[in-house]
Amino acid sequence: MNPTNRPPEQRHVRIQATGPTARLEIDDRDIADQVRSYELRHTAGQLPELQLLLRPTSAPEWEGTARVVVGEAPDPGPAAAAFLRALDPAETERAVLARHDLLDGGPHEFTRALLAQLTEWALGERQPGEHEAVDG
Q1: What is the 8-class DSSP label of residue 114?
Q2: What is the largest CA-CA distance in the chain?
Q3: Euclidean distance between CA atoms 120 and 41, whole angstroms
Q4: N or C, where is the chain less crowded by C-beta within 10 Å?
Q5: Structure pTM?
Q6: Does 59 or 19 have the greater pLDDT score?
Q7: DSSP helix/strand/coil, 14
Q8: Is the separation of the CB atoms in 4 and 63 below 8 Å?
Q9: Alpha-carbon torsion (112, 115, 120, 121), positive or negative
Q10: 86-116 pLDDT, tens per residue?
Q11: Which element (helix H / strand E) includes 29?
């Protein structure tokens, strides 16, 4: 045991979130200027877990009652590839051709409409199979 009588993987954590900013302390040491983002998870019956994503310029020295995990942002590539592989090409083409913003006459209008459609589907705003009819 350490001098604070806590197992070494536990740290005293204090978060004071005020709108878009937060004060983040580990063992009474403010580390907010070193952290780009944080996520606090707690499952009943288990110790809370604080995951920190550090700024590139940080000098991590941790002391400090949550289990602290220092992580990296996930790579979006595999999720994007899985999403695109799951799409039906014919349905995607029908949805893009039915979009009202396809007919704006601007450069690269089909590609812009395709990217807008994929973004909407990825965000769950519309599901594949849901598209608007083009007024004729």
Answers
A1: H
A2: 77
A3: 29
A4: C
A5: 0.43
A6: 19
A7: strand
A8: no
A9: positive
A10: 999 999 999 999 988 887 788 889 999 999 9
A11: strand 29-30
